[in-house]
Design goal:
The protein has one domain. The chain is mostly helical and 154 residues long. Helix 3 crosses helix 4, helix 3 packs antiparallel against helix 7 and helix 4 runs antiparallel to helix 5. Strands 1-2 form a two-stranded antiparallel sheet. It has 7 helices and 2 strands. Helix content is 58%, strand content 4%.
């Protein structure tokens, strides 16, 4: 298809748009916080546990979104790891074995991770521009606080 990608129906509904109501034949996957796949570990798992209740509370995370959310969480972890390596190896410019200054190789890893992070975040409605257009009512806020409290207790 040509043109921009359609905005997720859940995001349209939170914005109060009439377009969300006009999508009657769109598949509606079960809304639940999916269990993370076994490959999601370390920082990626921390991000999964941090963001999944937030996305679920807004209706933007379903059982069908596991792959996109996994990519988002892993890209976040890779991005943070690359940032730490850039700091640990002396910053954006390092010395090659020959003594010449060169860009830190971790810059490429950081930039690729950032690209994947931003594209998957956009798919999940996590960009700042998407948030400015969402008008969540008090029920969504109340539900998200209950989910967050249960998550902390577990």
């Amino acid at each position: 298809m040509r043109g921009p990608k359609p905005t997720p129906t859940a995001v349209l509904n939170l914005r109060g748009s009439w377009r969300g109501k006009s999508r009657k034949h769109e598949p509606q996957p079960e809304s639940a916080i999916p269990d993370p796949p076994a490959v999601v570990t370390g920082r990626a798992l921390e991000e999964w546990n941090r963001m999944s209740p937030i996305l679920h509370a807004t209706g933007c995370l379903t059982l069908a979104d596991v792959a996109v959310f996994t990519i988002y969480c892993q890209a976040y972890a890779d991005w943070q790891d690359a940032l730490e390596q850039i700091i640990a190896t002396g910053g954006p410019i390092v010395r090659a074995p020959t003594g010449f200054a060169m860009p830190n190789p971790y810059l490429t890893i950081r930039n690729q991770a950032a690209k994947h992070l931003l594209s998957s975040a956009a798919e999940l409605g996590l960009s700042p521009s998407a948030r400015t257009r969402i008008k969540a009512g008090p029920a969504a806020t109340k539900d998200s606080s209950k989910i967050m409290a249960r998550k902390r207790q577990a």
